Amino acid sequence: YLAKRIFPLSFKEALKFKGNDLKDENKLINFFEEYLINGGLPEVVLAEEVEKLEIVKSYYSSVVNRDLIESYSIRNKEGIKAILNLLLNSTSYSYNKMYNTLKSLNYEIGKNTLIDYLSFIEDSFFMFSIPIFSYKVKDSMQYPKKNYFIDNVFLSKISNNFSKNYGRLYENLVAINLLKDGEDFFYWKNLKNEEVDFVVKKGNKVDKLIQVCYDSSKTETFEREVRALLKASKELKCKNLFVINKDKEEVLEKEWFGIKGKIKFIPLWKWCLEERK
Fold first, then answer.
1. Is 78 helix (H, G, I), strand (E, B) or coil?
2. Residue 75 and residue 70: Cα distance in Å, rounded?
3. Cα gap 82→59, rounded to integer Å
4. How far apart are CA 103 and CA 66, in angstroms?
5. Interval 125-139: pLDDT, tens
6. What is the pTM of this model?
7. Contacting residues for 103 by C-beta, under 8 A, at least 6 apart
8. Bridge-partner residues for 252, per DSSP?
């Protein structure tokens, strides 16, 4: 058979489902806050607020029991549930670290089985992960992978983070859109642990660098994000720089110890509506 991926609703599609006017910016922004948290699963988008949680729990149960345990004949049911819980409550993973964490929690899962289970989770289209950007295969295999989920609602309703982590929700939504656009993307990190969220590659060249920052008004956060972006720009020879954030929209020329670059700041809700193809 041929498998065809059907993504949750994009922001634009969710707006049409709800009959919202694309020309009313205030309504767009208000609905985006709802979409950011509740995601784009059609039944969830159309449901009343009091019904959303139960629907999401039902979807999650279906993923665990039907798409994973039944489809792959998984015998260690508690083990696969523990892995999912760890993934939902972390932003990256490595096989060794996860293996040791599970072992410390008294889950008997071998390393090869763990690798199989993680592969099953990705094949189920529930989670996807990206490696570090490197021209060395060894680096991309050794460094942790960053993990994302196919809909934000699983992070806001199923994970153990009781307060809304807007930073993670923003980054996850950007990752979903890049995946949907068919982009070849990675993350970048240097030896000082400075990081750029997304490196988008076209062929053999880096096409754009994207930093995701919920609140760019905080000076310390702003400087950290910009500094990493400029350093990655120099190393990867890419001048197409973006900071996707909550509300800043402008192009700024920044410099860090002789490294110069023009950075385009764009609100996430507006970036989600762009035609990028």
1. helix
2. 9
3. 17
4. 26
5. 999 999 999 988 787
6. 0.94
7. 109
8. 263
The pLDDT tens digits for 157-177 are 998 875 678 999 999 999 999
pLDDT of residue 90: 94
**For residue 274, what is the DSSP state?**
S
List Cβ neighbours of 53 (8 Å cut-off, separation of 6 or more): 157
- Which has the closest alpha carbon to 185: 227, 231, 238? 238
Specify the 3-state DSSP secondary structure of 259.
strand
> Is residue 145 packed enough to be buried (19+ CB in 10 Å), middle (13-18) or exposed (0-12)?
buried
Looking up tokens 């008294």 gives 106
Q: What's the rounded Cα separation, in Å, for the pair 28 and 274? A: 14
- In single-letter form, the type of residue at position 124 comes to S
Q: Are strands 145-149 and 195-202 parallel, antiparallel or unpaired?
A: unpaired
C-alpha distances out from residue 261 to 200, 216, 223, 241, 267, Å: 17, 17, 14, 8, 19
pLDDT for res 179: 97
Q: Which residues, in sequence order, are bridge partners of residue 200?
A: 185, 208
Contact 212, 198 (CB under 8 A): yes
The DSSP-derived string for 38-76 is H-S-HHHHHS-HHHHHHHHHHHHHHIIIIIIIITTT-S-
Q: Is 90 exposed, middle or buried (0-12, 13-18, 19+ CB in 10 A)?
A: middle
3-57 pLDDT tens trace: 788 999 999 999 988 887 777 888 899 999 999 999 999 999 999 999 999 999 9
Mention every residue, 6+ apart, whose C-beta is less than 8 A from residue 73: none
What pLDDT score does 59 carry? 96
Residue 102 amino acid letter: L
Tell me how far apart the alpha carbons of residues 277 and 267 are, in angstroms, rounded to a whole number.
19
